[in-house]
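[agent] plan:
  1. take the single chain provided in the ticket
  2. run structure prediction with default settings
  3. attach structure tokens to the ticket
  4. add a short note for the reviewer (M.T.)
[agent] executing step 1
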Amino acid sequence: MGRRSLAALLLGSVVLAGAASALEEEPFNQVLKPPGALQSVNPPNVVLILADDLGFSDIAPYGSEINTPNLSALAASGVSFTNYHTAANCAPARAMLLTGVDAHLAGVPNIPEMLAPEQRRHAHYRGVLGQNVVTVATLLENAGYHTYMAGKWHLGSTPGLLPSQRGFERTVALADSGADNWEQRPYIPLYDKARWYADGEPYQLPEDFTLRDFWWIKPLSLLTAILETSARSLPTFLFKRCIYLCKPRRLSSTLIWVSMMRVGM
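[agent] step 2 finished; step 3 output follows
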């Protein structure tokens, strides 16, 4: 029952692919109307984890020689995609997963930092999630779900394009392609600062911030708060976007110093 219900929920985003294709000749700002609330006696909780730049067979459930017991346990008790079509880099893949339509239709054919000015003149080449598509978070929110997002967003950084405006009730999101793992600062000179947001408002990271801990502690604290209130009767959708594989090499100055001492440099 749980798996069939979950498959139906995921299908809601896939159905939009057919609806969105009919808009190719229509104004780009036309908004698709989400379907009515899903009917389920016992709707499942959904945790969707996206790891950017991860190869299909890099984890054990899909044939890797690398032992990933926790991911294997999730795959065994959850639902695994077997016919999922992705993109060559992070933002387009994320746009397709959240909307169920091709990245070009969603407005994110490439990460915005790599789009040429000549491309940006076209509506579907802005590098931000268009208003002509509906996210699975919006569909589930309309169906009575709590919807949470934690991690890298990179689908638009202006107020109207943040995840808090695309169906997510509570969010802790990085608007850029990446940032420092240990401090609130950019990792490349394309950005003047690291743009973090919580529930749509600029967010100042704590002094003891580490990216790995922060992006797991925050969503878990939100889920714990739900369990302690009357809202626990509502189903929950959590979208967790991992950045570790996309930007794995950023180390703190302390760790760099320790590593240099160990090798005698």
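[agent] step 4 note for reviewer: Residues 1-38 have pLDDT under 50 and may be disordered.
[agent] ticket updated
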